[in-house]
Write a structure and sequence with these properties.
Helix content is 44%, strand content 21%. The protein has 151 residues and is α+β, with helices and mostly antiparallel strands. It has two domains: 33 residues; 101 residues. The strands form two sheets. It has a three-stranded antiparallel β-sheet with strand order 1-2-3, with no helix packed on it. Helix 2 packs antiparallel against helix 3 and helix 3 packs antiparallel against helix 4.
Length: 151
């Protein structure tokens, strides 16, 4: 790792610690040339499939879209930020583990629903209503009955 101050190539790790949920490693480093200290973060680089949309188009995997949908469904719900981040991380991890080059967007939607159902029933129904395009009250009722049967 090059020093960000003097660009010297020989830096030493002074301390390493696991980050949040063990998903990253935080390293305190110092430069052997200029003695400056700096922090680096090491994180697993996942390989995600391309996403086949319902209209036939293909686009790259986008974690921000997952985050927006999850955040919208959890609006005004009492779910901590750390729980939300774990949920998003779990969805991304599961999509990465598919081990395919391309997958349908519905696979992501169902994965989000599965994880939301573990965290908050109201958020689950909110997300399902948009994702599954509920048309009327009967659609909500059927989804609620399904949740009750699974419990």
């Amino acid at each position: 790792m090059r020093c960000p101050y003097c660009h010297y190539e020989d830096t030493k790790v002074a301390d390493s610690r696991l980050g949040v949920d063990g998903a990253e490693v935080r390293r305190r480093r110092h430069c052997t040339e200029c003695n400056e200290r700096f922090t680096t973060y090491e994180r697993l680089e996942r390989r995600y499939p391309r996403i086949l949309k319902s209209n036939g188009s293909v686009e790259p995997f986008n974690e921000d879209k997952i985050r927006r949908g999850v955040m919208r469904s959890l609006e005004k719900r009492k779910v901590s930020n750390s729980e939300i981040e774990r949920l998003i991380e779990k969805v991304c991890e599961n999509i990465s583990k598919l081990g395919v080059d391309q997958t349908e967007s519905s696979v992501i939607g169902e994965e989000i629903l599965r994880e939301l159902g573990k965290v908050d029933d109201v958020a689950y129904v909110r997300f399902a209503s948009v994702y599954r395009r509920f048309e009327n009250v009967n659609d909500f009722t059927q989804e609620l009955k399904k949740i009750e049967q699974e419990r």
